[in-house]
TrEMBL record:
Name of protein: Arf-GAP with coiled-coil, ANK repeat and PH domain-containing protein
Family matches, as SMART domains: ANK, ArfGap, PH
Localization annotation: Cell membrane; Endosome membrane
Functional description taken from the UniProt entry: GTPase-activating protein for the ADP ribosylation factor family.
Polar residues: compositionally biased ranges: 562-572
Record keywords, A-Z: ANK repeat, Cell membrane, Coiled coil, Endosome, GTPase activation, Membrane, Metal-binding, Repeat, Zinc, Zinc-finger
Cellular compartments per GO CC: endosome membrane; plasma membrane
Membrane-related topology note: Peripheral membrane protein
Organism field: Eublepharis macularius
Any coiled-coil regions, as ranges: 113-140, 217-248
Regulation: GAP activity stimulated by phosphatidylinositol 4,5-bisphosphate (PIP2) and phosphatidic acid.
InterPro entries: ACAP1/2/3-like, AH/BAR_dom_sf, Ankyrin_rpt, Ankyrin_rpt-contain_sf, ARFGAP/RecO, ArfGAP_dom, ArfGAP_dom_sf, BAR_dom
Length: 784
C-alpha cells in the first residue's frame, strides 16, 4: 500500500508532516473540484440524452403516422413499421444507457464526494482545532513563572492531555488521508468501468437488433433497384401513351369512352348524364352552370349515380329486371331518354345521339342479363367443424430458488427451456415474456417482428428482470406453451423447423403458430376445461342454431362469390362471400396437410364467451397453463362477466391472491383500470383484500389510484380505514411521487430513486418471501 502521509511524522508533527498535509489538502481540494465538475457534465449529458430520446420518440411517431398514411401500399407500410419499431428499440436502449450512466457516474462519484471527502474535511477541522489547542497549551506552559508551583503543575497537566489528544486525532487524520488516497483510485475506476460496460451492452444490443434487420434491408434494397427500373419503364410507356392519345381524334370514339365494360367490378357502362329533378316542378336546375350533372353507372344490375367528390353512390333503380327504357322526345332538350320503374321514372340527357343510343342499349342488355342470372342462384352451404375433446394440460411449478442464480439459469432450469421453443437451438438467451417461452436470437427477431400484441421479447442476459416477471417465466415454459400452440402438429403432420433451417421457414412456422394459431386444437369445447362453467341454455341454442354465431361454421372453398340465400333466409352478398373466402385462405399454406380441407372458423359469441369464462375461472384458480390455453382459443383478456358484477379476469386473479396470474394478464394486455359494477378496479380489490404485492404491482403498471367506487372511496381511503400500514405507505409514496413528477414536469419518468428502491424491495418480498407481507387479514375477505 502506498502511504501518502507517514504516521511517525504525524506523531512528531515535523515540518515534513505539515508540508505533506498541505500537499494532500491541496490535492483533495482540486480532486473535489474535478469530481464535481465531472458530475455536472454527466448530469448535463444525461439531460441532453433524455431530450434526444424525447425528440427521437416524436420522430418515431412521425414515421408511424406516415406508415398508417401509406396503408394502401403494403411495401411502404411494412418497411416503415419495421424501421420505426427497430428505432424505437434503440431509443429504449438509449434510455437504459442513460439510466446506467446516472447510476455509475453520477451516483457513485457523488457518493464519494459527499461521504469520503466530507469525512476528510471533518477530520481536517478536528486536527486543526486540536493543533491550535496544543499550541496554546505549549505557550501557556512556557509562560508560567518558576516560583508558582500550582500554576506550573496545572499547565503541565493541560499540556500532557492536549498532546495525547493531538496524537490520537493526528493519527486518525493521517489514516483518513491514506484511506482516501487509496479509495479514490478504486472509486473513480470502478465508476468508469461500469460506464464503459453500459456502453458495451448498448452497442451489443444495437448490433443484435440491426443484424436481425439487415436481411430485410438487403431485400428491400434489391426491391428498390427493381422498382427504379420498373418506374423508368412505366415512365417511357406513359409518355408514349400520352403522345398517342394526344394525336387521337376523340370525336369518332365518343361512345367507346363512355361505354366501359369491366367484368371484374361488374360495371357495364358509366359516364356523365344530366338528370331532371324529380320534384313537382320537373326542372333541369338552370341556376347551376352544369345543371344536375352526375356520374351514372350500370353495375350489379342496378342504375346508380355519384355526385362530384362523393364516393357513396345513390341508387336510381335497385333491380333492372323491373324497369324499362325508352326515348324521350316530348321534352325541349335533345338526346333525352327515360328509365321507368314501378315506383318512379327518371329522365336523363346524354351529350349526343350516339351516347343516348349507347345508354339505351346498355340498359336493355343489363335487363336481359339480370333475367338470365336469376336462374343461376343457389344456396350457400354451411358445414360445422368437428369438435374434439379438451387435452389435459398438466405441469407442476418447478422454479429453482437458489441464491446467486442468474435469470438465465433460473429460466433455463424449467423443463424444455434449455432449447429454443420454436426451432430447438440449445442455450437460448432470449425470451417472450407474455408467452413465457425461451428463444434463440434468430427466432426472437422473428417474434419481435410480429408486434408486441403477439410477443414481447426480452434478453435473459442483457436486460434487468423484475422478480414477478421472472416468476412468471418459471411458471410457464416451453413444454406448457407448446402443448397449447402445437396441439395439432402430429395430427397435421407438421415438422418444426430445425436450428439450421432457413429464416423464411422459421418465420412461416412462427406466424402460423402464434399469429394464425393454426396448430391450436380447433373446435374443442373450452367448457370442458378444468374450472370452466357450462354456458346457459340460451347461449347453447344460439351456438347450435344461429349460422351467424356458429363457432365451427365453415364454407367450402369452391363456393362461388355470388348472392345466395339458405332456407332460413340468411344471405351473403358477393363482396361478403369474397371477403370470407379471402379470410379462409391464408397467404401461408405451408402447414396445411394434403387431403385436409382448409377450415374457415367463424368465431361466434358462444365460443368467445366459453373461452373468456375459462380465462376468468383459471385466473382465480391460479392455473397459468389454462389461462394460456384460453387466450390461444380467442379469449378476450378484458372479458367481462356480466353475471358476476362485470368482473374481469384480472379482478378474479386478485381475488385468487396470485401475483403471477396478475402479471401474466397484464403482460398480455389486460386493462389495469377496468372497473366492475361497483366501480372497483383491480387496485381497489387488492387493497380491500390486503394483497400488498398486488398493490405494488398495479401501481408500477400505471393503475389510477384516484378512481373512486360507487361509495366514493379511493384505494387510499380503503387502506386507511383497514389500517393496513404497508398498503397505505405504498399508495402515499406513489401519490407523492406522482405529484412531484407533475410539479417538476417529469411526465413519463420513473421518479425518485428512494421511491423506486422501496417498490423494488416490496416486489422482491412479494415474489420471494410473500409470507412476510401476510400481516393483515381483512375481516370481510370472501371467496367470490
Amino acid at each position: 500500500m502506498r502511504v501518502a502521509v507517514d504516521f511517525e511524522e504525524g506523531l512528531k508533527d515535523s515540518p515534513r508532516f505539515r508540508a505533506a498535509l498541505e500537499d494532500v489538502e491541496g490535492d483533495v481540494t482540486e480532486l473535489e473540484l474535478k469530481l464535481e465538475k465531472l458530475v455536472k457534465l454527466c448530469i448535463a449529458m444525461i439531460d441532453t440524452g433524455k431530450a434526444f430520446c424525447v425528440a427521437n420518440k416524436q420522430f418515431m411517431a412521425g414515421i408511424r403516422d406516415l406508415a398508417q398514411y401509406s396503408s394502401k401500399d403494403a411495401l411502404v407500410e411494412t418497411s416503415l413499421t419495421k424501421f420505426s419499431d427497430s428505432l424505437q428499440e434503440m431509443v429504449n436502449y438509449h434510455t437504459i444507457l442513460f439510466d446506467q450512466t446516472q447510476r455509475s457516474i453520477k451516483a457513485q462519484l457523488q457518493t464519494f464526494v459527499k461521504e469520503d471527502i466530507r469525512k476528510f474535511k471533518e477530520a481536517k477541522k478536528q486536527f486543526e482545532k486540536v493543533s491550535e489547542e496544543k499550541e496554546n497549551a505549549l505557550a501557556k506552559n512556557a509562560q508560567v513563572p518558576r516560583n508558582k508551583l500550582h500554576e506550573v503543575e496545572e499547565a503541565t497537566h493541560i499540556l500532557t492531555a492536549t498532546r495525547k489528544c493531538f496524537r490520537h486525532i493526528a493519527l486518525d487524520y493521517v489514516l483518513q488521508i491514506n484511506v482516501l488516497q487509496s479509495k479514490r483510485r478504486s472509486e473513480i475506476l470502478k465508476s468508469m468501468l461500469s460506464f464503459m460496460y453500459a456502453h458495451l451492452a448498448f452497442f451489443h444490443q444495437g448490433y443484435d437488433l440491426f443484424s436481425e434487420l439487415q436481411p430485410y434491408m438487403k431485400d428491400l434494397g434489391a426491391q428498390l433497384d427493381q422498382l427504379a427500373v420498373d418506374a423508368a419503364r412505366e415512365k417511357r410507356e406513359m409518355e408514349q401513351k400520352h403522345s398517342t392519345i394526344q394525336q387521337k381524334d376523340f370525336s369518332r370514339d365518343e361512345t367507346k369512352l363512355e361505354c366501359n365494360v369491366d367484368a371484374a367490378s361488374g360495371i357495364v357502362m358509366e359516364g356523365y348524364l344530366f338528370k331532371r329533378a324529380s320534384n313537382a316542378f320537373k326542372t333541369w336546375n338552370r341556376k347551376r352552370p352544369d345543371g344536375i350533372r352526375r356520374w351514372f353507372s350500370i353495375q350489379n344490375n342496378q342504375l346508380v349515380y355519384q355526385k362530384k367528390f362523393k364516393d357513396n353512390p345513390t341508387v336510381v333503380v335497385e333491380d333492372l329486371r323491373l324497369c324499362t327504357v325508352k326515348h324521350c322526345e316530348d321534352t325541349e332538350r335533345r338526346f333525352c331518354f327515360e328509365v321507368v320503374s314501378p315506383t318512379k321514372s327518371c329522365i336523363l340527357q346524354a351529350d349526343s345521339e350516339k351516347l343516348r343510343q349507347a345508354w339505351i342499349q346498355a340498359v336493355q342488355a343489363s335487363i336481359a342479363t339480370a333475367y338470365r342470372e336469376k336462374g343461376d342462384e343457389c344456396e350457400v352451404e354451411w358445414k360445422p367443424a368437428p369438435s374434439t375433446g379438451s387435452p389435459e394440460l398438466g405441469g407442476e411449478y418447478r422454479e429453482k430458488l437458489l441464491k446467486g442464480e442468474s435469470s438465465l439459469q433460473r429460466v433455463q432450469s424449467i423443463a424444455g427451456n434449455a432449447v429454443c421453443c420454436d426451432c430447438g437451438l440449445a442455450d437460448p438467451r432470449w425470451a417472450s415474456i407474455n408467452l413465457g417461452i425461451t428463444l434463440c436470437i434468430e427466432c426472437s427477431g422473428i417474434h419481435r417482428s410480429l408486434g408486441v400484441h403477439f410477443s414481447k421479447v426480452r434478453s435473459l442476459t442483457l436486460d434487468s428482470w423484475e422478480p414477478e416477471l421472472l416468476k412468471l417465466m418459471c411458471e410457464l415454459g416451453n413444454v406448457v406453451i407448446n402443448k397449447v400452440y402445437e396441439a395439432r402438429n402430429e395430427k397435421m403432420g407438421v415438422k418444426k423447423p430445425q436450428p439450421g433451417s432457413q429464416r423464411q421457414e422459421k418465420e412461416a412456422y412462427i406466424r402460423a403458430k402464434y399469429v394464425e394459431r393454426r396448430f391450436v386444437e380447433r373446435g374443442r369445447s373450452t367448457s370442458g376445461s378444468p374450472g370452466a362453467k357450462r354456458l346457459p341454455a340460451s347461449q347453447e341454442a344460439k351456438r347450435h342454431y344461429s349460422p351467424e354465431q356458429s363457432p365451427g361454421a365453415t364454407e367450402p372453398l369452391a363456393a362461388s362469390p355470388q348472392v345466395r340465400s339458405n332456407d332460413s333466409g340468411f344471405q351473403h352478398s358477393t363482396e361478403d362471400s369474397r371477403e370470407h373466402l379471402a379470410s379462409t385462405v391464408s397467404a401461408n399454406t405451408l402447414y396445411e396437410p394434403e387431403g385436409e380441407r382448409q377450415e374457415a372458423v367463424a368465431p361466434g359469441r358462444s365460443r368467445e364467451a366459453a373461452a373468456g369464462l375459462q380465462l376468468y375461472q383459471a385466473s382465480y384458480e391460479k392455473n397459468l397453463p389454462q389461462m394460456a390455453e384460453a387466450l390461444a382459443h380467442g379469449a378476450g383478456v378484458n372479458w367481462v362477466n356480466v353475471e358476476e358484477d362485470r368482473a374481469t379476469p384480472l379482478i378474479q386473479a386478485v381475488r385468487g391472491g396470485s401475483l403471477v396470474s396478475c402479471e401474466f394478464l397484464l403482460q398480455n394486455g389486460a386493462n389495469v383500470n377496468l372497473r366492475d359494477a361497483q366501480g372497483r378496479g383491480p387496485l381497489h380489490h387488492a387493497t380491500v383484500l390486503g394483497h400488498t404485492g398486488q398493490v405494488c404491482l398495479f401501481l408500477k403498471r400505471g393503475a389510477n389510484q384516484h378512481a373512486t367506487d360507487e361509495e366514493g372511496k379511493d384505494p387510499l381511503s380503503v387502506a386507511v380505514e383497514a389500517a393496513n400500514a404497508d398498503i397505505v405507505t405504498l399508495l402515499r409514496l406513489a401519490r407523492m411521487n406522482e405529484e412531484m413528477r407533475e410539479s417538476e414536469g417529469l411526465y413519463g419518468q420513473p421518479g425518485d430513486e428512494t421511491y423506486q428502491d422501496i417498490f423494488r424491495d416490496f416486489s422482491q418480498m412479494a415474489s420471494n418471501n410473500p409470507e412476510k407481507l401476510k400481516r393483515f387479514q381483512p375481516p370481510d375477505a370472501q371467496k367470490p
